Amino acid sequence: MQPSLIEPRDLPPCHVSSGTFGSTRTIALRHAFSVSAGLRVSSSGGCFFPSRCSAGEEHPVVLQLGGSDPETLAHAVRLASPWSYDEINLNCGCPSEAAVKTRQGHGFGAQLMTCPELVRACTEAMQEAASVGVSVKCRIWTHPTLADLERDGDRFETLLRFVDTVSAGGVRRFIVHARSGILAGLKASENRKRPPLHHDFVEELQRERPELELTLNGGICSLEEIEETRAKGLEVMVGRWAVQQPWAFADESARARGRGAILQDYLAYARRELQEHREDHLSILADPLRNLFAGVKKSGEYRRVLSEALSSSPREGGWDRFQTAFATALSHLPESAFEGEK
Ligand SMILES: Cc1cc2nc3c(=O)[nH]c(=O)nc-3n(C[C@H](O)[C@H](O)[C@H](O)COP(=O)(O)O)c2cc1C
């Protein structure tokens, strides 16, 4: 059996996203979840593909590109083709300074929302180069500062115009983080909490453009919300909640087996990844297990010990170091943390 942190369950398919990829890698295993693997195309055209995306058991995996030059993006798509990604995504949602400051062209990320024609040109070039679908992850809009947002407000029409312009070039799938991106004055992490969410914009978009495949993202943190959103015809992408509380997604069978059994499955998987040289970064490999015990007594101690053991020179030590780090960290947890539900 392939290892999985979370067993397949009768949960509506939703998408789990993390720029750190490793944090959600196991959630993608044997689960109808997609992971967007963050990747930058540098202004000089250089590309970095995380080698771990090629593992067959981790599909479906979406490769996310950041860029604004159609030719460079098409080149990146062609370079990525041997890695068998299931979908290629263009990042039109990142408001970080690095994205804004990219010197050449229009940078990448959220600021591209103000240039829908350019996004269409990019995605057209990407589609021509790709043998799989191309999608766009965007915000509802983007403003230079919070003061601009306060003055101009968020308007559904601007989102609609963006989506109409881009979809005219053939893109059918949009993943919408339902808040505006603020390009200056807010850190990336603050840009995930502010400005306010507008799920209603994405719902309206679904009603206006039912032919598109739309995914709602932003602030979803209950299974009920996922169900309710899907009942409206939208897919759901979950970000921080899935990373912070992976056990919330455990189904009946996983709960019956308990966190201990799931942990053992994952450790067997990690051992293979390390020994077969698909992954050598111990800290990234440990990410999916950091919050497995969230809510359990002494889980803070477990997390702290694990971090301390793996943070320095994370590519050194291989399986022996990994296993020792876990043995030490896990020893802080009570026996009951590993048991399944009766
Ligand atoms: C650590 C971290 C890294 C992220 N990196 C990316 C990224 O590379 N590309 C992207 O489109 N979104 C990225 N996001 C944003 C998430 O995909 C998502 O849009 C955001 O967290 C809002 O969803 P949530 O409220 O469910 O967390 C990142 C989020 C976090 C917390």
Describe the structure.
- This protein folds into two domains: 60-238, TIM Barrel (Alpha-Beta Barrel); 251-338.
- 39% of the residues lie in helices and 12% in strands.
- The chain is built from 14 helices and ten strands.
- The longest helix has 17 residues, at 259-275.
- The structure holds flavin mononucleotide.
- Flavin mononucleotide (FMN) binds at residues 17-20, 36, 38, 64, 91, 93-94, 137, 177, 192, 217-220, 238-241.
- Pfam families: Dus.
- Residues 52-309 form the DUS-like FMN-binding domain.
- This is DUS-like FMN-binding domain-containing protein.
- It comes from Durusdinium trenchii.
Helix-strand blueprint:
Blueprint: E1 14-16, H1 25-28, E2 35-37, E3 61-65, H2 70-80, E4 87-92, H3 97-101, H4 116-129, E5 133-139, E6 142-143, H5 146-152, H6 156-167, E7 173-177, E8 181-182, H7 199-208, E9 213-217, H8 223-231, E10 235-238, H9 240-244, H10 252-257, H11 259-275, H12 282-290, H13 299-310, H14 318-330
Parallel strand pairs: 1-10, 2-3, 3-4, 4-5, 5-7, 6-8, 7-9, 9-10
